[in-house]
């Protein structure tokens, strides 16, 4: 048993969400999110007038309507599922390890939760961004925020970071089990399985970001595990720049013309369901496909706080805490 002053902590980190599905809350969230230089890699003098002008004057109202479509009684889906993951994982790891959660943008903030964990005696903390594939705009910026918070402290805890787990056998197995279980529950047999990953500007790949390559590896390993084709697409384009493709919405609209009228879409780059999976894919994606002549569409849930997710996260945490836990 560890002593209180040497307690081990695990901080689960996800992207973020507005506090409420209203324009003011969405505007605050988008202002923080889109001001991150890792998210929008444009010169500040060029981007900020655009952000503070047309983007934040028009986009919050539209996004707030979308958030209302998926908002749960307990709050934003991303916050609800991330919190539930932390609670269930705490039960899995026991009292020797304190499990907490934070959001890179919005609440609860990384700095707030780090300070709370330290106040509870955590002298060693594993930072665990819940992004299977590494991307500077997700993984790196989450760690940036954690390091910036730690830089304000006189006395710092020892820190470890969870590496991307896009090809970890436990992750692929969790995806396989979750996918097969959900496919078996459908009342139709999909002719094609799409893996839709969050898009990024093509320029990020050219600058050396490994995200695109890691997405392809994940999909290839999942296809091997399932014994069937998994076609990769990318969603959530923003702005006029060229983005990674093929685009999910364009593919969904084109599939019926190829004779594929029954499709299922999973989103393996997301650890928890959120606006991008529930509204963009499960709602708008279904509309794109069915209005183009498709017959059956299914969105497969993310791992969320499922038993498959618990097995995966327990494996990752045990591995990363080796030596600290004395086992």
Structure description:
With 327 residues, the chain is an alpha/beta fold. Helices cover 47% and strands 17% of the residues. It has twelve helices and eight strands. It has helices at 23-33, 44-70, 77-93, 110-119, 136-150, 169-184, 202-206, 211-226, 248-254, 275-278, 280-291, 307-320, and strands spanning 7-17, 97-106, 122-129, 158-161, 192-198, 230-235, 262-266, 296-299. The strands form two sheets. A four-stranded parallel β-sheet has the order 2-1-3-4, sandwiched between helices. Strands 6-5-7-8 form a four-stranded parallel β-sheet, with helices on both faces. Strand 3 (122-129), helix 5 (136-150) and strand 4 form a beta-alpha-beta unit. The radius of gyration is 20 Å and the shape is globular.
Salient structural properties:
single chain; 327 residues; alpha/beta; four-stranded parallel sheet; 12 helices; 8 strands; globular
Quick structural overview:
This protein has helices at residues 23-33, 44-70, 77-93, 110-119, 136-150, 169-184, 202-206, 211-226, 248-254, 275-278, 280-291, 307-320, and strands spanning 7-17, 97-106, 122-129, 158-161, 192-198, 230-235, 262-266, 296-299.
Low-confidence stretches: none
Q: Tell me roughly what share of residues is in helical segments.
A: 40-55%
Which structural class do the helices and strands define? alpha/beta
Strand content: 15-25%
Total strand count, please? Answer: 8
Oligomer: single chain
Mean pLDDT: 96
Please give the order of strands in the largest beta sheet.
2-1-3-4
Helix/strand order: EHHHEHEHEHEHHEHEHHEH
Task: Please report the number of helical segments.
Answer: 12
Separation of the first and last Cα atoms: 12 Å
Described by the principal axes of the CA atoms, the overall outline is globular
Radius of gyration, CA atoms, in whole angstroms:
20 Å
Major beta-sheet overview: 4 strands, parallel
């Amino acid at each position: 048993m560890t002593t209180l002053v040497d307690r081990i902590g695990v901080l689960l980190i996800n992207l973020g969400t507005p506090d409420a599905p209203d324009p003011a809350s969405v505007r605050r969230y988008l202002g923080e999110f889109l001001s991150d230089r890792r998210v929008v890699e444009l010169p500040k003098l060029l981007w900020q007038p655009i952000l503070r002008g047309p983007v934040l004057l028009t986009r919050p109202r539209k996004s707030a309507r979308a958030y209302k479509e998926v908002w749960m009684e307990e709050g934003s889906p991303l916050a609800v599922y991330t919190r539930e993951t932390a609670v269930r994982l705490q039960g899995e790891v026991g009292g020797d390890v304190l499990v907490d959660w934070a959001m890179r943008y919005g609440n609860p903030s990384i700095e707030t939760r780090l300070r709370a964990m330290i106040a509870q005696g955590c002298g060693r903390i594993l930072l665990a961004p819940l992004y299977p594939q590494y991307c500077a705009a997700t993984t790196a910026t989450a760690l940036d925020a954690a390091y910036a918070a730690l830089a304000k402290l006189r006395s710092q805890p020892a820190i470890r970071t969870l590496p991307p787990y896009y090809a970890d056998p436990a992750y692929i197995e969790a995806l396989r089990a979750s996918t097969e279980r959900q496919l078996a529950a459908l009342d139709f047999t999909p002719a094609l399985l799409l893996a839709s990953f969050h898009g990024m500007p093509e320029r990020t790949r050219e600058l050396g970001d490994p995200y695109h390559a890691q997405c392809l590896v994940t999909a290839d390993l999942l296809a091997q595990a399932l014994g069937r084709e998994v076609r990769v697409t990318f969603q959530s384009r923003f702005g006029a720049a060229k983005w990674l493709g093929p685009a999910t919405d364009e593919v969904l609209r084109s599939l019926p013309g190829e004779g594929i009228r029954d499709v299922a879409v999973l989103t393996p780059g997301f650890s928890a369901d959120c606006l991008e999976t529930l509204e963009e894919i499960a709602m708008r994606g279904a509309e794109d496909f069915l209005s183009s002549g498709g017959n059956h569409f299914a969105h497969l849930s993310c791992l969320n706080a499922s038993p498959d997710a618990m097995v995966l996260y327990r494996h990752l945490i045990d591995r990363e805490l080796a030596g600290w836990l004395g086992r």
